[in-house]
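Problem 12. The chain below contains 749 residues. Write out its predicted structure in token notation.
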Amino acid sequence: MKKLCEYTKKPLAESSELEIFNALLNLVSDEVKDRGYNEGKKKVYYVSAEFLIGKLLSNNLINLGIYGEVKEELEAVGRTIAEFEEFEHEPSLGNGGLGRLAACFIDSMATLGMPADGVGLAYHCGLFKQNFVNGRQYETPDYWLTWGTESWMHRTDKHYDVEVGGYKLRSTMYEIDVTGYRSKCGRLRLFDIDTIDERLIKNRIQFDKGDLLKNLTLFLYPDDSDEAGRLLRVYQEYFMSANAAQLILEEAEAKGSNLHDLYDYAAVQINDTHPTFVIPELIRLLTERGIAEEEAYGIVTKVCAYTNHTILAEALETWPRHYLEKAVPHILPIIDRMNAYIAAKYSEPFVQIIDGDNKIHMANIDIHFSHMVNGVARLHTEILKASELKPFYDIYPDKFHNKTNGITFRRWLRSCNHELSDIISARIGKDWIKDADELEKLLPYAEDEEFTSELLDVKHQKKVEFAEYVKRHQGIEVNPDSVFDVQSKRLHEYKRQQLNLLWAIELYREIKAGHRPLRPVTLFFGAKAAPAYVTAKDIIHAIITFGEVVRSDPEASPWLNVVMLENYNVSMAEKLIPAADISEQISLASKEASGTGNMKFMLNGAVTLGTMDGANVEICELVGEDNIFTFGKSSDEVIRAYAEHSYNPYHYYESNHRLRGAVDFLVGHDMVSRGDETVLKRLHSELIGKDWFMTFPDFEDYRAKKTAILAAYEDKKSWAKKMTVNIAKAGYFSSDRTIKQYNDDVWGV
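Solution.
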């Protein structure tokens, strides 16, 4: 390995922060070139609208096996890797669990030695940067590419022509290296056009949505509250898919494919419905090369597989026909013929590609023209088969299978929690970093006083560090001796941050009545709300406002704190998750496909408080009921209530005085005097008049289990045992396991 000073061309002690950081980038780039890329006849193309990759410096140094050497060289001149981690900007290429999963998957593909690339878009400003102004979420552009002179993302000389929206666009492909742990590397390939103009952004994240040449890749998930925004999403999705299709065929042909045998050269994984256009685009390109259309159907079906991530409407996209007439008129006749082909075989209306309202169902294209369809947790897959996608399962029972999500332990333990990683490795060695099942060897240490004492010390250290971080970044004092009760995930009503808030309000009211908890509690919320999602933004405002109420109350503030973390992202998650005591996974049963935050928290020794939803079910089975706290209606009960239209929130509100007191507190003097009365009244009305995700029926059970988990925390010996069991049983949730299953059952590379 070359020394950093060989890149700075002068002593490190005389080099600026920027010069050293650029040297680190170049060092990693050279090490990647020396390591080489995973190659083979057949390659996986993981096509996704988002890749939430996080900062890459430490992860790359660890995977390349040079972290220790770099650390020593920097420390010799009084510098640390941590300061360059702070200097590094986080690539803004994703949003939530979907994008973070994709990032974990490409890490695992590289580590397992698989020829595989991620394929997506090179967004200039990502989703948005979240700021809190007067207790409200404000969105501003996340200009992640405007710093320094170097970047992890580098331009290539590969270009494709794409017709979309009446324009013939010339794309440029960019690449980010994906380092494998003790392995060769992969690539993340991202497409852009050279005419994008960030000056188009005028007011926060507002811009001219009609200027396609300047706006196409400005933002991930542009505001779709109007037709122009929805059309822009179609343009983005087709542009991504068309580039992916051309890349796939070009590389296959370069290896000798005659395209009739494309399956021997390419496996395409469609990550949710955003890349669906890759199917008709591949069909179009194959027919242009002389392959009959029905044969092209078979070729593409054999090559493509589809991952369904949720049963919520936003993940099962439908587009009005006139959108496609404007955006991709050359693709529409192909979709029409695909629709006729399916209609001739199946009469069931639910499975048609184009419905009676002339809407095109993207998930239906994916299911018909993929050879495999998977859910992302066992419960989720069973719900798809039994109810949500049952007509498809009746037609294609052999297509449906489960692939429970996973996370990369290199980032979510080895990189983000060195202290915990070290005390684990001191007991069981380091093989767990690549073989997560090795963590099972930690189980006997659940009764080892020396280990559990060290485990508690590490947890406290990470809590102190995160408290200092919150003070530094948000000016809020946090007691590190309090219980850190954490709910960090995208803000959506089905994830039920509002349930956690109502519990906190009830605890506040109890404190005011003289009933203090056993120990101070700090509630952390980390979440962004989609810019057009009014109720989600209202919940954020209520959380921020309530936090201000609590902190201004000298009677309650020693016992309760509520912190809404600003601009929650991967970098903050890497600090928060190691510090968490309680992992809140409280989605309405049947609505969370899997979750991956639940896995990251358990891996770092947090104990789950959750519903039997998504991967929580499998966590419960692995750790046992003594090491998790579950509550709430079952998925069967929830599905039945929706089917019968039997839920009446006002009934619960009227009959439960504690619940009613907490809900009404939202519009009481303490809240209204500090917050926006219109917003708070709107949220209050939404809860008692609709509460679509059934917050109220689970309130009492949630309250009881929260009391139980807080009481359990007081027995430190027992709590440390629960922590140890959770860590030891987390091995199943390695993304290496998930990717190996995909390869064995779906891709075959």
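Discussion. The chain has 31 helices and 20 strands. Students who got a different answer should revisit the alignment rule from Section 12.3.
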